[in-house]
Design brief:
The chain is mainly β and 269 residues long. It is built from no helices and 34 strands.
């Protein structure tokens, strides 16, 4: 038995048990599943597919031909916990670009933008004020904390955890189960947060741990299972606990300015 509680928005459609705000805008050929909630101010583009039991919160925008799979929550508004140390301001609706796929049971918070042609796996959490560049992949079970900025063609693989405020450049690869940290005092002091930075073309191996304030410079590479306590300079390869210099990324293995591996180019060395 469904019980519809009176809300602040009007219902213009209850087809299949869905609740759609009277002022939501839905494009041509959009497919809306069962038990979907679409709040006021939402804009859904042409050819969009919305799975069953999806909630689109106030002001959410979905670009043309995107797919939001079953049981997702898009545009969730953050609420502070009793010991939250940072201020949470009201956020605009979430924005999902064109031809984006958001996997089942994922949550994307308000104020976040996912640009065109991105893939977001199942059970992903992306907090408020994040920006995910075009053609990026966010694997199953990834957690991206608030205020993270990613460039284009970024790959964050399954179960990685990206801490608040992390800056990720273009063509960055983050392997499964990577953990990043921002709190140097481990909750023994307030607001001592220094997030990591991954510059363009960096690669972080599986199960690596990146400590607060670490900068991995362009083409820097971190081996699997490493604990990185100091900056990784351009083209360096570091491994171990603590991570130490183990080599240099060869020129043929670096990326060209357009993201193509040098070995694929004519005249490769």
């Amino acid at each position: 038995m469904l019980i519809f509680i009176k809300t602040t928005f009007l219902l213009s459609s209850m087809t299949g048990g869905s609740m759609i705000s009277d002022d939501a805008k839905i494009g041509e050929d959009a497919k809306i599943g069962k038990l979907v909630i679409i709040e006021e101010g939402c804009v859904i583009g042409n050819g969009v597919s919305i799975g069953d039991r999806v909630t689109l919160h106030k002001g959410t925008r979905i670009g043309d031909n995107s797919v939001i799979q079953e049981s997702c929550i898009i545009g969730k508004h953050p609420r502070p916990g009793p010991r939250t140390s940072h201020k949470i301001d009201p956020q605009p609706g979430a924005v999902i670009g064109e031809k984006v796929l958001v996997g089942a049971f994922s949550i994307v918070y308000a104020g976040t933008v996912i640009h065109d042609y991105c893939y977001v796996g199942d059970f992903v959490g992306i907090r408020e004020k994040c920006d995910i560049g075009e053609y990026s992949t966010v694997g199953r079970g990834v957690l991206i904390e608030f205020g993270v900025k990613c460039g284009h063609h970024v790959r964050i693989m399954n179960n990685a955890q990206i801490t608040e405020g992390t800056r990720i450049g273009n063509n960055v690869f983050v392997a499964p189960d990577v953990s990043t940290m921002t709190d140097r005092k481990m909750a023994r002091d307030d607001n001592i947060f220094v997030p990591p930075v991954f510059e363009d073309n960096t690669r972080i191996g599986s199960n690596a741990v990146i400590l607060p304030g670490v900068r991995v410079e362009k083409e820097g590479t971190v081996g699997a299972g490493s604990v990185v306590m100091k900056d990784v300079k351009e083209n360096q390869i570091v491994v171990g606990n603590p991570a130490k210099l183990a080599g240099i990324v060869m020129k043929r293995d670096r990326l060209s300015p357009d993201g193509t591996p040098n070995w694929r180019l004519k005249g490769k060395e």
